[in-house]
Amino acid sequence: MKLVLRPFSPANLVPHLRPVFGIRNYATQNSAGSTGSPGPSGSSGGPKRKAITPFSDTGFVPWKELSAAEKASRATQQSFNFGVVVLGVVMTGGVAYFLYQDVFSPDSKTAYFNRAVDRIKKDPQCLALLGESSKIIAHGEETSNRWRRARPLA
């Protein structure tokens, strides 16, 4: 039995695969029979697109194809989105500022409290009255929150 080998080349596959790639199993907007490209409002015989409003704009229609009202609508939407982002950045900065001022700043109440506790743990008179410094625990002010007071310790 004689084995016949043919040389392989990608060009040999192209005629066999062409019918597979040429068949479309999906719908398209521009079929082969349509003429012209649709304008901003679809006036050249192509399919009409929906009008753009601040709530329905997805950004897929190019700027040059928009009417004046649609451009105003898109600008309004983009300005609102920018405002939301700026508001988020400002609020995040505000939270970071207050967190720094109340917790991490050297002049914060927390820093003063921690320095006072450290001084108490180092003072010999306080140690004589309160005991070893490792057993001294500082909790801060009592809270007026009833839920915190009623919480079990364990």
TrEMBL record:
Any Gene Ontology CC annotation: TIM23 mitochondrial import inner membrane translocase complex
Example GO biological process: protein import into mitochondrial matrix
Keyword Cytoplasm appears in the UniProt entry: no
InterPro entries per record: Tim21, Tim21_IMS_sf
Region ranges (Disordered): 29-51
Principal place of residence: mitochondrion
Membrane topology, as annotated: Single-pass membrane protein
The entry's keywords: Membrane, Mitochondrion, Mitochondrion inner membrane, Protein transport, Transit peptide, Translocation, Transmembrane, Transmembrane helix, Transport
Biased composition (Low complexity): 31-41
Keyword Signal: no
Family matches, as Pfam families: TIM21
Residues making up the signal peptide according to the UniProt record: none
Subunit structure: Component of the TIM23 complex.
The family this protein is said to belong to: Belongs to the TIM21 family.
Function of the protein: Essential component of the TIM23 complex, a complex that mediates the translocation of transit peptide-containing proteins across the mitochondrial inner membrane.
Protein known as: Mitochondrial import inner membrane translocase subunit Tim21
Species of the source: Diatrype stigma
Lineage: Eukaryota, Fungi, Dikarya, Ascomycota, Pezizomycotina
